[in-house]
Give the backbone structure.
Amino acid sequence: MQLEKYKIDEFNHTQQASHNRKFEFIAEGIAQVEDVLQKLVNFQIAIPSWALGTGATRFGRFAGGGEPRTIEEKIEDVGLLHALNRSSGAISLHIPWDIPQDYKAIKTLAAQHGLTFDAVNSNTFQDQPGQPLSYKFGSMQHVDKAVRQQAIDHNLEVIRHGVELGSESLTVWLADGSCFPGQLNFRKAFQNTLESLQEVYAALPENWKVYVEYKAFEPNFYSTTIGDWGQSLLLANKLGAQAYTLVDLGHHLPNANIEQIVSLLLMEGKLGGFHFNDSKYADDDLTTGSIKPYQLFLIFNELVEGMDARGMNHATDLGWMIDQAHNLKDPLEDLLQSVQAIMIAYAQALIVDRTALTEAQQQNDVARAQEILQDAFRTDVRPLVAEAQLRAGGAVNALELYRQLKVRENLIQERGLKTVSTGL
Ligand SMILES: [Mn+2]
């Protein structure tokens, strides 16, 4: 399905007067509003290829209809999102779920939708059909060198696909760990993982980054070999300048102070990328901003402060991606909501009065510091985000237009009701 630009324009026209009123109201109170708007226009969040179909819990999967059946249809779906919000201009592929056959054709298709290829993701947490050795007891940590080699070779293959597509980063998430005390020698497991990653690192093109993702638990429940940001940072430091830690919001123990983790990783120059999602209990993969929007804002507050302190470009110096699975909602609606939640949190962080906050901190004025942060958080910045998306050619309200245009109904007509997209 192609979204004609005139339909977006028509829709925007019907909303223009009401939008202008709201925008002018908020713009008046913001210093350097043009600068904030430009940052919002530039900011792009990558959509993972596995989030476009209804995902699964460990117990069942309920297909939603009209799901993308091929990598081409996945690109088309991300293209639809991007046409609507102009804030999701990249796609992140997972190998082997999305192995491109014709690189040139895929790249052309992506370019037609204004999309680039974000990080490529390897998978050594499942056995694939025809795979000689099993990852049941881990991949890069495995006691058998032959299994480790298989995992290394897979990552090298993923890099080769990425190079062909113009991607510039590899994300490695390992499910490696143990379920029972005594099962693993922690030190050997870590050492094997490091040595395996070193071989992958050696194959990285010069302009590439490798992101080492951590996760506290699941699928292993006693130990995870890269279980927290300390273990990831240790690996990234040992690997070298092209290796970074990746923070997935759902991969922490309950109540972890993620904003503090972000701040210190940025200080060390070792924060590489982000996976957005939200959770109530663990790695729930719920819509970003649906459960803890204040935490999301606090994280962005540290991101903006920390990136500015290092003179980093907000839009391009970190990898921004959504990492979610959807059970109940239309995945495209869910992704539109997630992108919007991220844009809102980012906009709120951009309008924090940093000079006043620094002053309050220096004076130990705790109440004032809290007021400054909450003043930004409680500002309705939606018209600001909408203005940026309008200027970039998107819709003033992407989700509303998505429904008006009956996009899902159209996709079901095109692709059928019983389509199942590859992924979890
Ligand atoms: Mn992730």
About this structure: The radius of gyration is 22 Å. The chain has 15 helices and eleven strands. The longest strand covers residues 243-248. The CA atoms of residues 311 and 317 lie 10 Å apart.
